[in-house]
Predict the 3D structure of the following.
Amino acid sequence: MIPGDFEYYRPNSLDEAVKLLATHGDDARVLAGGHSLIPMMKLRLAAPEHLVDLRDIASLTGISEDGGNILIGAMTTQSEMIASKVLSESCPIIRETALLIADPQVRYCGTLGGNVANGDPGNDMPALMQCLGATYILQGPDGSREVAARSFYEAAYFTEMNDGEILTAVRFPKPTAGHGYAYKKLKRKVGDYATAAAAVILSMKDGNCVSVSIALTNVADTPLYAQAASDALVGTAIDAATVDQAVALAEGITEPASDGRGPAEYRTKMAGVMVRRAIQEARERAQ
Amino acid sequence: MSDAATMTLEEREATLGGVGTARKRKEDVRFIQGAGNYVDDVKLPGMVFGDFVRSPYAHARIKSINAEAALAVPGVKAVLTAADLKPLNLHYMPTLAGDVQAVLAEEKVLFQNQEVAFVIAEDRYIASDAAELVEVDYEELPPIVDAFKAMDEGAICLREDIQGKTEGAHGARKHDNHIFTWEIGDQEGADKALKDAEVTVKELVTYQRVHPSPLETCASIASMDKIKGELTLYGTFQAPHVVRTVASLLSGIPEHKIRVIAPDIGGGFGNKVGVYPGYVCSIVASIVLGVPVKWVEDRIENLSSTAFARDYHMTGELAATKDGKITGLKCHVLADHGAFDACADPTKWPAGFFNICTGSYDIPVAHVSVDGVYTNKAPGGVAYRCSFRVTEAAYMIERMMDVLAQKLEMDPAELRLKNFVQPAQFPYNSALGWEYDSGDYPTAMNQMMQAVDYAGLRREQAEQREKVARGESRTLMGIGVSFFTEIVGAGPSRNCDILGVAMFDSCEIRVHPTGSAIARLGTKSQGQAHETTYAQILATEIGIPSEDIGIEEGDTDTAPYGLGTYGSRSTPVAGAAAARVGRKIRAKAQKIAAHLLEVAEGDLEWEIDRFKVKGLPEKEATMKEIAWAAYNNLPEGMEPGLEAVDYYDPPNMTYPFGAYLCVADIDVDTGETSIRRFYALDDCGTRINPMVIEGQVHGGLTEAFGIAMGQEIAYDELGNVQGASLMDYFLPTAVETPVWETDFTVTPSPHHPIGAKGVGESPNVGGVPAFSNAVIDAFSHLGVKHMPMPHTAWRVWQQCHELGLTK
């Protein structure tokens, strides 16, 4: 539990941070809240020689509305998202999800950017961002570019992000007024990653579902956007048979590992249970 | 006269803060302000740091060790291997169980994370960097992970150092991987009872390998003064005096030149009873280098290499009549001790006090046999917040009671009531050789059943089962009953010793001239509030307010010799010494009072904090006055001062008991168990501090909840330890922990000076079966007899799935 030797930097501008990454290449890692990277360093599973801490870069923090979109700076903490009036009113599923991440002490440090950029399949925000149809804004030495959350994740800890790039913000369209939502997470205890978790956002009109998106956490080596399961509900009244069908479709795309949380079979079934419960609750909340 | 003269009796009792007072824990003032002094807080001039190179394999031959690259790192002082320890005869160390354990592996490694080399450097970071550079060439060997396969014909011999030895510390060995067979009771009688019985039940009840996981991990600092030839050893020691004796025997340093200091300890639960390679390596390194050497293990090292608990595979059998009277018990245990037998038990008890397994029941005949085996797992076998193997025994009998009740179609509480040892039977001699000192089981059981409305709960359960059957609910309700009897306070010298030292304990007290006092004891608190409760025992005996009595433990240069704190022995043994030392003080005080008041000793009577002359209530001498007089105004010929010491060899163990009830709701779709209610009635005899007792019960129940619902040190088929971190090892937080309801009855111990019995471990012993019985009871109407612990969500779900309850 003793990390290897490293140099620590705390730049106060994004340009400076990008330059530091460019200078040190593969040997450098960005540090956000530190709740994934530092434990890995203590286990010597990660041994970056240069650690670039982003906490002093003011432009990376904050939550704002921009027309129909919400923009969240990468260094915004889980606790800031929980406290945000904008998010509570426009997109309450973020608060619901953030409250299921670890404990208050972790949430004071843990950031949205760190949670989504690290590529850890256990993290909760990646699936939620896929559910929300979010876009990640990346800054590199050659300027900035955008990647959709639904195509960002390649494998555990492997993403579309290139060496030298920093994820600076996340943008997503504000869900329609009156939408129903739920994030359901099964975990063994506070601080644990999900045995399985599901995010559901849906809108109803005249008793019929007009839009739905479902995404899954920690039941594969990446977050999963459950397109087929989502499609199955659109245009229906979300009756029992349709929910059964969506649950089966969601279970069908899982590829969980067997671990201390249970064997793969169990985790697939739990993904189904979480999807079922999230659909039910979202349906009840929809106006 | 003092201010005390104007106080009422009630005010004087309150000022005294003696036995029965819910006094706040004195030590918490420093603990909650981060001002405790733990081993890692101790910093000595010139101190260097050690770190281990550990085996990645469960079973492998060491072909070579090359430390050149590590030694080349600037700041590295030395790298120790077995080759360095062997000339000193320190590559193996004796264990408390009569075996030896490798300090650093010589030819083979026998469990994953076993200590292979010790790297010493001028800072902790360099030590870790260099440890990574030690090259060890291994040849992998097939591991034995399943204890049931350890004694197979042709099974590979794990312990080549004792290969072919047919006699072990506890009798004959029948296989190279066999450690001992321990038997007690009447085999023929038990077999006959089973053969003749109207009803029998048999079940394999496994208590999984768990770990005490104290918040503070194990640590030591050795400081060898080569000029004086003196060794000072700081460490996380539940039994510091025993550590001094063992260190002297191992190192050859005379015992008076070794000072062992156990400062504040952040939880022990048995994990800090034994001697670990880290302690020995820090001592050797300090002797070699002549500077203090600190070793502090990390969480993974603690969970994967220092002492585990349980790992008992218990096959229980009960014989009974059709109407539920138990006629006999048999139990065979396969005990997985890991790579070395480092089990921490009194020397003559290789399976601890497992023979308490007849529990609270009047069972006429019983037989127990235990086979200990070696496997490629970490050594240990400590009493994790229980007396020696008592929680295993309680789990077995309390599970078997439910299995029998189910077979008889009888209510589990009724079956227990029917078989209790009755109050008039005490002192009660059990079929397996114990003399239970006291108890009133029916009263405790009935108080519990009334408090929870047991009949109402069973009615609710029946209704809930119907709802589930009709498809109106997806929640199963389980009710778990547990009635345990503990055996604590080891122990009487006739049957308890550690490496030949009898398991007495001690208290020494000095009353100062101004009427305050310092007392020192041979035990060592790890959070049990000894500074608070011992002072209360003394306050009641000597009439000095508990606030004015300082308590010290843990420094072998100042404290009297004692056997330490584990097995709920502090109150039964050292607490008794405290009461008796107080009586010695009071006897001398009475002589001084008689002198001061110019009356005969027999004319005096004791009242809270003073002696009064019988019939002349205004003539009195307070303890404060007596203390002053002890230093300047004594009867002719009396030795000055007011000091005493007492070494107490208990005449018997004490037998705390309790009635616990757990109500669990199980979500059949996820397998999650929610503990709706947990009621714990404890009888620990005289209650010294009700607040401390309640805290102890809360802590022990929380550990029991952790064990029953999630804790397990598991290994894969290659012997890789699974989940040795707090991410996977279930330490419940306040969020998961149920609400506890506590209650009590008081049946004082007839042989303890103040009637106290010990309580710290009861909730772990009684709690585990209550949780487990509740979970299994939820499925009992569907024919389920037993489910393996821990009852994690996936395991419970698996049961639901097998029964076709899931969607």
About this structure: Chain A has three domains: 7-53, 65-173, 180-285. The radius of gyration of chain A is 19 Å.
